[in-house]
Amino acid sequence: MMVPNGKITSCFSLLLDLIPVISTNSVDPDTIFSNNEMSLRDIEIYGFDYDYTLAFYSRHLHTLIFNIARDILITNHRYPEGLREYEYIPNFAVRGLHYDVQKALLMKIDAFHYIQLGTVYRGLHSVPDEEVIAMYQGSHVPLEIMSDFYGKSSHGHTMKQFMDIFSLPEMTLLSCVNDFFMRHNIDYEPVHLYKDVKEAIRDVHVKGIMYRAVEADIEKYICYGEQSHAVLKKLSEHGKKMFLITNSPFDFVDRGMNYIVGKDWRDLFDVVIVQADKPGFFNDRRKPFRRVTDKGALLWDRIHRLEKGKIYKQGNLYEFLRLTGWRGSKVLYFGDHIYSDLADLTLKHGWRTGAIIPELRKEIKIMNTEQYMHMMAWLQALTGLIEQMQVHRDPASQAVVDEWIREREAMRAQTKDIFNSQFGSLFRTYHNPTYFSRRLSRFADIYMASISCLLNYDFQHTFFPRRTPLQHESPFCRSLFVKAPIPNRITS
Ligand SMILES: [Mg+2]
């Protein structure tokens, strides 16, 4: 780093001031993080989604979904046989990406609707920044073409957001099929490709292919079962009411819960709703509950009570609230899908919400490395130096500032690649929060890597969001790397 004569002393003392104190403390991946203050003292009723909330799946499930959907494209949609050469690529995509259906581009967008340059992929290859800027006349994506609150594309919306963990194989398949067509110079319509892949992935779920495969080899596909069991047991021992609202069918949930909890799993839950059709469940008042027998038969009688031990299908939240009386902030619902599981509950119904973000565990592990901490400290210092020194307009000073700016830009790639070399972190686009992060902070009171994090807290615990200074407020502490404390955490 070159520093102009006469500025060396002031520059280095400034640098020392700007380098944040690096704490040797790391963030505990079992922490529950809060966006909004919430006390477990107030929570009497706990609700759960099933897939990726109570049941966690191994990496084999994504390979299974990818392979089945790829074969459906070939067999049912007459896609080229050559597609079979593609295998699932673990760690290609991350959750929360946007896909431009018209242009066949997968990309990461930040909280301010800007595309993160360097994270735009056509097929399996990165699109040069200049090309992206030319296509979008800059890097901003207007609201009109973004998908709605629930990540769905409707008329005129060409950007679909993938928020589901199940969508990782879908994004990878889309990228592989685009790659195949481009490599073979086949003229194709990207809109048809998107719809066909979407339909093939949906068929894997709807036609029960995935359910049957998981049920046939449950040990291969479900992991962390005992921790979910321990959480449910703890809640039950403390007299908490519990319910399950899942979009999955009863057989599949029953088989999984038998594996996770045991054959008496239904004793733990006061209400069990399957095939709920979320997010429609939270909005559509018309769909009544229907009883399902243990053998899967549907009964025709009108539902006047939601009884423990019985299984109900579909229904809607308005009817659920009327029949149970479980309203407002005494209810905490956990789910992994920020839109389908949590958005309506926060926006319309006032339940408290907990987001399950399994990716946190991997990202926190990276953030705890010395390499990452030093990178962040230097990035912060460099930013501060540029901010302070830019006022010196003489050519020598400007040359140094320009060098710092180039160094800061070069660090963008490092801070991205350390998480995922294509798309970086789920939570950040360089300095800004991602579109995903913005939604997470809006719709989830608390968030955590897995439901098992609850085992670290007692039922008197209050989660306080950290009071990070607003831009116009003066910070109380300079340190970037403050350990996320777990006050009153159970240590035994
Ligand atoms: Mg789920």
Automatic annotation (TrEMBL):
GMP binds at residue 51. Its cofactor is Mg(2+). The keyword Magnesium applies. Pfam families: 5_nucleotid. Mg(2+) binds at residues 49, 336. Binds 1 Mg(2+) ion per subunit. Belongs to the 5'(3')-deoxyribonucleotidase family. InterPro entries: HAD-like_sf (IPR036412), HAD-SF_hydro_IG_5-nucl (IPR008380), HAD_sf (IPR023214), Pur_nucleotidase (IPR016695). This is 5'-nucleotidase domain containing 3. Keywords: Hydrolase, Magnesium, Metal-binding, Signal. It comes from the Eukaryota. GO terms for molecular function: 5'-nucleotidase activity; metal ion binding. The active site is at 49 (nucleophile), 51 (proton donor). Residues 1-24 form the signal peptide. The keyword DNA repair does not apply.
